[in-house]
Every structure is written in C-alpha cells, then in structure tokens.
C-alpha cells in the first residue's frame, strides 16, 4: 500500500525555531491558497502511480489553515486517483491557534480521522519565547475538544531542550499532557537550525542550550514517566498507547513507498527518491505551465540504500530484522556490517536478539539520543 503526504506551506507566523519550508501570513492570501490547492489536485491527477492508498498525512506549515472543504477536496481527489482503502489513516497536523469554534468537528467530517496537535509546551512564558501564537489554555482546550469528538487517534507534539529549558518545565508538560485521554505523544528535541531566529542566536553564542548530559537526563525522565503511564516508546521521538502508532510515519521508518504532493514534498517509489520545488509560488507556476516541478531525483546505489534502511530501522524500538534486510537486498546484514557491529555491540550502543528464528538489532532506548551518531557507522555520507 502507498502512503500519501500533502505539504501545506502556510503559517500564520514563522516560529522562531522552525526551519521547515513554510510561508508566514505576510506572504500569502486566500486567493493564493486556493490556487495552491488547485495545483496540488492537478499534480495528483497527473501522477502515473496507481497503487491503493492506506495512509494520508497533511503536514506543513500549518494544514489547519486550510478550510475543511479544501481538505475534503484533496482527499476526494486522492480517492478518485488511487482509491483510499477502508480503515485508512488520514492525519492532519493542527495548530491550536487556528482551530477555533467547530473547525475540528468540520475537519473530522471532511475525512480526517487522526489529529496531531502542535502544542510544543504548556508553559506560557516558553511559548512566547519560541514564537508560538497559542496559549497553554488554548492548547488544553484544543486537546479536550479533539478527544471529545471521537477521532481514531489524538496526538500531541512537545519539544524539549530549548535555551534555558529545565527538567521542571518538562515534568510539568508531561504531567499536563497525561491528564488527557490521548494515545500518541511526539517528544522532539530542539535543534539549533541555521537561518532561524532562535537557532542563529544559539549558534552565535547569544543563547545557551542544555548540554548533552542534561538532554539525556530529560529524555530518560520523559521515557520513564510515559512508559509508566502505559505508553510504548516505539520510535526515537514517538510514544503511543493502545497500539495507536502513526501508521503513515511508520512507512518512512520501514522503508516503504510514499508519494508527496505540494511544494517541497518528497517521494520514494520504485527505489527512486524525488523532491518537489520548495518555493510554493514557483511550484504553482510550473504546474500551470506543465513544466518540471521536481527539484531533484535520485536512484540510490545499493550501499546507500542499505545504509539508509539501517538508519531508518534503528530509529524504531523494534529494530532491524536480518531476514527483512536479506529479503530486500539479498545480502547478509551481519556480514555486510561485521566491523561496525562488532564495535557498536562491544560498546553497548547496539544489542542483538534472537526472536522467532530471526535475528534483530536495535538501539537501547537510553542511547536513542545519539541514534544519528550510531547511524553514521552504516550510512555513506
């Protein structure tokens, strides 16, 4: 089955830490949003891929800036082109600032069955410092309404590790989010990205972020609290209860196929990866003129594909299956990476386990924070 990602590049304001491809309100109007929706639908119509779809993810930017009718229109176009399977997961990210009144209910009626709420924190002082427009009260109210509407899954995103961020803030955020009957929590670590207001201040030394020891301590604390409350730490930054994993994101981590539509959207099909033009205005212009919208396309060599597969699989608590590696690449994982595995196992960074006539390798949760460093042993840079 195919996963579909739809990029919505519109935001009310650029958050001070955000490096994603998105446009603040000063650069768009309602007419351009409608033009963009037309172009996304046109791109969907023109694609030559025809596999059935079982996950759709509206990301951004802030997808909840779109109207429910616009969301419904895109879902309908996807169904017409590919066919959406029964019991498919249809997710949308939303910002508490943009879902006033009955909007959440209207989005559900439009076809959204999984909602991901970008809260980041319940600390009002921190929310202002990082450029969020919503308050702690608005976040709580949004979660409360979403939980009452009967979505298949309600998730909340939190971020830790901002400058001057303390364990007390994290503890308070976790205590507050656990008061709601949600079944998915994403806990991301702040990254100082060049070109962002907050990131540049950290890079230049004007602001100081917590050191690695503090970040590990905070992550281990969060892990302990969430697991104690019934959540499974199934991926580096993601926790779920009652098996409410994000099925769409699992496609990325499991090296499965997906198509991306809209500006800056990425796709991975038939062993080929391609990315759309990042500029939404240029994207629309090229769609209208029937010109190329791809920023790049690449077919990964075997070694690069193997390394990427390992990197993605090691993000998951379930780890990497040797039999699956062999099925995809026709090679013995332990032989291909004999030297790397020997070093990583000896130092406790990777563990090996036999399960049901298969061999699995995985990173213990206490080393999740350095997963990217561990993955470098397998990928070709």
List the defining traits of the structure above.
381 residues, alpha/beta, TIM Barrel, Arc Repressor Mutant, subunit A, 2 domains, nine-stranded mixed β-sheet, three-stranded antiparallel β-sheet, 15 strands
Structure description:
With 381 residues, the chain is an alpha/beta fold. The protein has two domains: 2-252, Aldolase class I (TIM Barrel, Alpha-Beta Barrel); 302-375, Winged helix-like DNA-binding domain superfamily/Winged helix DNA-binding domain (Arc Repressor Mutant, subunit A). 39% of the residues lie in helices and 22% in strands. The chain has 15 helices and 15 strands. It has helices spanning 30-46, 68-81, 103-110, 124-129, 136-148, 167-177, 197-203, 212-228, 247-253, 280-288, 302-313, 322-329, 333-336, 338-346, 371-375, and strands at 2-8, 53-60, 84-94, 114-120, 153-160, 184-189, 232-235, 238-240, 258-261, 266-269, 272-276, 294-299, 320-321, 351-355, 358-362. The strands form three sheets. The chain has a nine-stranded mixed sheet, sandwiched between helices. The protein has a three-stranded antiparallel sheet with strand order 10-11-12, with no helix packed on it. Helix 2 links the parallel strand 2 and strand 3 (84-94). It is globular. The two termini are 30 Å apart. The mean pLDDT is 94.
Q: Topology, please?
A:
Elements: E1 2-8, H1 30-46, E2 53-60, H2 68-81, E3 84-94, H3 103-110, E4 114-120, H4 124-129, H5 136-148, E5 153-160, H6 167-177, E6 184-189, H7 197-203, H8 212-228, E7 232-235, E8 238-240, H9 247-253, E9 258-261, E10 266-269, E11 272-276, H10 280-288, E12 294-299, H11 302-313, E13 320-321, H12 322-329, H13 333-336, H14 338-346, E14 351-355, E15 358-362, H15 371-375
Parallel strand pairs: 1-2, 1-9, 2-3, 3-4, 4-5, 5-6
Antiparallel strand pairs: 6-8, 7-8, 10-11, 11-12, 13-15, 14-15
Helix pairs in contact: 1-2, 1-10, 2-3, 6-8
């Amino acid at each position: 089955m195919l996963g579909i990602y739809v990029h919505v590049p519109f935001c009310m304001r650029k958050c001070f830490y955000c490096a994603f491809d998105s446009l603040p309100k000063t650069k768009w109007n309602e007419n351009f949003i409608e033009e963009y929706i037309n172009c996304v639908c046109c791109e969907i119509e023109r694609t030559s891929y025809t596999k059935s779809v079982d996950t759709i993810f509206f990301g951004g930017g802030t997808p909840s800036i779109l109207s429910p009718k616009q969301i419904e229109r895109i879902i309908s176009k996807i169904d017409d082109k590919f066919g959406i399977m029964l019991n498919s997961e249809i997710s949308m990210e939303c910002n508490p600032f943009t879902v006033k009144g009955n909007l959440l209910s209207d989005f559900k009626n439009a076809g959204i069955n999984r909602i991901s709420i970008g809260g980041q924190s319940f600390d009002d002082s921190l929310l202002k410092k990082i450029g969020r427009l919503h308050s702690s009260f608005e976040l709580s109210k949004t979660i409360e309404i979403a939980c009452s509407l009967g979505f298949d899954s309600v998730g909340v995103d939190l971020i830790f590790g901002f400058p001057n961020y303390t364990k007390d803030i994290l503890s308070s955020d976790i205590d507050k989010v656990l008061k709601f009957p949600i079944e998915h929590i994403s806990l991301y670590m702040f990254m100082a990205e060049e070109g962002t207001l907050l990131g540049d201040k950290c890079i230049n030394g004007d602001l100081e972020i917590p050191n690695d020891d503090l970040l590990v301590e905070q992550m281990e604390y969060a892990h302990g609290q969430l697991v104690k409350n019934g959540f499974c730490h199934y991926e580096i930054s993601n926790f779920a209860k009652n098996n409410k994993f994000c099925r769409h994101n699992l496609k990325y981590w499991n090296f499965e196929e997906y198509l991306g539509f809209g500006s800056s959207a990425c796709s991975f099909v038939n062993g080929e990866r391609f990315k759309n033009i990042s500029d939404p205005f240029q994207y629309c212009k090229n769609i209208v003129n029937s010109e190329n919208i791809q920023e790049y396309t690449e077919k990964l060599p075997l070694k690069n594909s193997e390394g990427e597969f390992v990197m993605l699989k090691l993000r998951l608590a379930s780890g990497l299956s040797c039999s699956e590696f062999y099925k995809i690449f026709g090679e013995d994982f332990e032989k291909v990476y004999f030297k790397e595995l020997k070093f990583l196992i000896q130092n406790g960074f990777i563990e090996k386990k036999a399960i049901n006539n298969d061999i699995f390798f995985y990173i213990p949760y206490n080393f999740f924070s350095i997963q990217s460093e561990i993955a470098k042993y397998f990928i070709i840079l």
